[in-house]
Design a protein that fits this description.
three-stranded antiparallel beta sheet; 3 strands; single chain; about 10% strand; Arc Repressor Mutant, subunit A
């Protein structure tokens, strides 16, 4: 059984209101994500890939001397140490 899409009719003002709400929600989400990223002190390798942004293989091959700490068998990178390392490389 094929379903048909629901059609919703909005006035131009209602459409503008919906667009504004969606825009504000997206901007708020991006801001919160950026704040969380900036405030984070410790990162796992998967998070470091997003922070720099370079691939995991590039980190292993070209930044093998990047400072890290192993805690409970997991490798963590300190954001300040990473920044200092890159600035002084």
């Amino acid at each position: 059984m094929k379903t048909r899409p629901i059609e919703i009719l909005l006035s131009p003002q209602q459409l503008a209101d919906v667009e504004l709400q969606v825009y504000q929600t997206v901007i708020s989400g991006i801001s919160k994500a950026n704040e969380a990223k900036v405030q984070k002190t410790w990162m796992k390798t998967s998070e470091l890939v997003d922070y720099l942004p370079i691939s995991d293989s590039t980190i292993r091959e070209h930044l093998s001397d990047l400072p890290f700490h192993i805690i409970g068998g997991t490798k963590f990178y300190n954001k300040k140490e990473v920044d200092d390392y890159l600035l002084n490389k």
